[in-house]
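Hi team,

As requested, here is the filled-out complex form for the guanosine-5'-diphosphate run. I kept the field names the same as last time so the parser does not choke. Let me know if anything looks off before we queue the next batch.

— J.
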Amino acid sequence: MTSNADQLPLVAFVGRPNVGKSSLFNRIVGRRKAIVQDLPGTTRDRNYDLAEWRGRTFRVVDTGGMLGEQLEGPYASSVEDQVRLAMNEADAICFIVDVQTGIVSADEEMARLLREASQPVYLVANKADNNDLELAASEFYQLGLGDPHPLSAHHGRRVGDLLDEVVEWLPEMAAPQADIVCRLAIVGRPNVGKSSLINALLHEQRMIVSDVAGTTRDAVDTEVAFDDQRVVLVDTAGIRRRGKVEYGAEKASVRRATAAVTRADVVAVVVDAGLDITSQDQHILQIALEAHKGIILVMNKLDLIKDDDVIEDRRKRQLRWRSRFVPWAPIVWMSALTGENVQELLLMAVHVAEERRMRVSTGKLNACIRRANIDHPPASVHGRAVKFLYATQASVEPPTFVFFVNYPEGIHFSHERYLQRRIRDEFGFQGAALKLAFRKRGSTPLQTQQEDAPDLQTASQDAKRSSNNG
Ligand code: GDP
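And here is what came back:
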């Protein structure tokens, strides 16, 4: 669903406040609103939306709205941040200026940054409500961004001309396909029961559990229907291929896991309940973590230890301990042999894939981070306080959070882990590896504020605004 929607080309709208960004944004997505409601994830963040023009569907984002659009006043989010966000994420950028006010310094600053953009930038001269104002748009040639596109978002005048040009240059990407909900890789050491598990999932025994030398070397994925949803099991042939011949073949199983993990949303790391958890199990888990995938721990062969409470308890504790670097990964206990709990894995995989697509609003995120930093302030660097200016969820799959701080290099790993925990406590993201990035805040008025100015002021204003909006 949104995994596919998120692969659609993205057009970002940037511009200082009051140039008519949201009017243009609404005019472009307006027609689609009703349809968009049906796409999970896309409506969770009011700054992202889908638009369609001449049969092409694309996503649009108002980066100003996303950053709380505090471009004026003492707690301004900088023009630079807004533009950089667009330049990092978008396939095309519409830079909106106002013909009725002409060029102001914030326009110039944005233009200076946008001249470095690697994607097409469309200079949109809004509020050109009549022919005279259209002519006045030629002033904007000075910004060094090519031809201005005079239009009137309010009157709908010449908006189509802009869209014609934008869609012509957008990269070709697949239209959203609403039905694959999860790509699941099943990885683990040899003989933990991966093939048996796949067999059980497919409700059939045609797949041979023992050696199957000579089968295709190409990676083959298998699709299973689950509650009318499509789940793809990644690289099923890869698992069959080597069968029982992989004794001690740590490198081979790691290599294969790496390849499968790359193509998956969620990784089920299978371990054998009959054996101790080894460093190789941990290694495979680490691969999934480093790829920022969804992770589920699968303790297979539960039937072997079920009658022995002591062993069962010991295994469970050992699994949690040895996987303590992913304390948020859910554990599914199962037996591929008896089929017990096998469906649980699919249920959990679909759930984790969904969590990876979750997007939290900038306002709520900032409120959460502010509280976290009050409860447990970050350690200072060279005697200077580390200040969090604001945070935003930059993307999904994996959920990626960008924090703008005064000393990004000063954020200790333990504080990063703490923030992750607080984000999880508040929003969930069950089973999803999160990605956190700390960026230095560009030169903005905020840096000249006195030291005791409350951090994340923009966030609280943003939060207020979003609660006003319901
Ligand atoms: P793979 O190398 O990870 O694909 O492991 P296989 O699926 O080939 O299984 C290895 C061995 O473990 C086979 O003999 C299976 O029958 C056995 N096995 C798999 N799952 C279970 C289980 O849940 N319980 C028990 N007792 N044996 C299992």
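Two things worth flagging: Residues 188, 190-196, 209, 239, 300-301, 303-304, 335-337 surround guanosine-5'-diphosphate (CB under 6 Å). The two ends are 25 Å apart (CA to CA).

Thanks,
J.
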